[in-house]
Amino acid sequence: MITGSVLQENDYGYLTDRLNQAVRYLEEHDLSALEDGTYVIDGEDIYMMLQSFRVEAPIDAVYETHRKYIDIQYVLEGELELLIGNRSRFIPAGKYNTEQDVQFYEPRENDAHVILQEGEMAILFPEDAHKMICFPKTGETVRIRKAVVKVRV
Question: Whole-model pTM?
């Protein structure tokens, strides 16, 4: 896992070419002007899903990993909470779904709790089991807008 801010002028030369291209795309495009949906960046090698949602009740998703793609979770609006741990410490829940490139896992104690603010990202590799959580206060509505960029391994 790598966390950081896309909005800072960082040198991402340490990333692979595909990861660097994906991060630069986030930095150089006005994503707020785009509708929610899926956008092709570089064929099947890099694509982005823009998602917006309002959360009124707690979300405690299940842990998941991906084999074919690295995830870049990038927050455009609101705050995104992620729990992250090494997949070797998790027990699979069902079989790996090759079509959706996802393996779900049984609940367990998390290894890391990451809170991403607007303009921040987390790069999640195939070994990073991760899940989103959100616990709004009673009567509160939380709005989250994020980009999930999928980068082929």
Answer: 0.88
